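EI: anyone free to look at a 72-residue chain?
SC: sure, send it
EI:
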Amino acid sequence: MVSPSVGSMTEWEEMWTRAMKKPAGGRSLQDLQVIYYGLSGLEALQSLRDSCIRALCKIVRYEKRQANDVLY
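SC: here you go
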């Protein structure tokens, strides 16, 4: 197996990004599952209940920002 070069996205990251870029109303069950697994792996969301993470899957969106932007 060849490791990806620096700067290239893995297949998982491409699926995650593609699912997050879709309009919330146009996401398939598979898109929601990909988003769920991505969100549930984030340390910042570990304290949330499963139902809250699933609710977030329906409304989160992808935004590309500069490296030093403050998000909250």
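EI: The chain is about 45% helix and 0% strand.
SC: 👍
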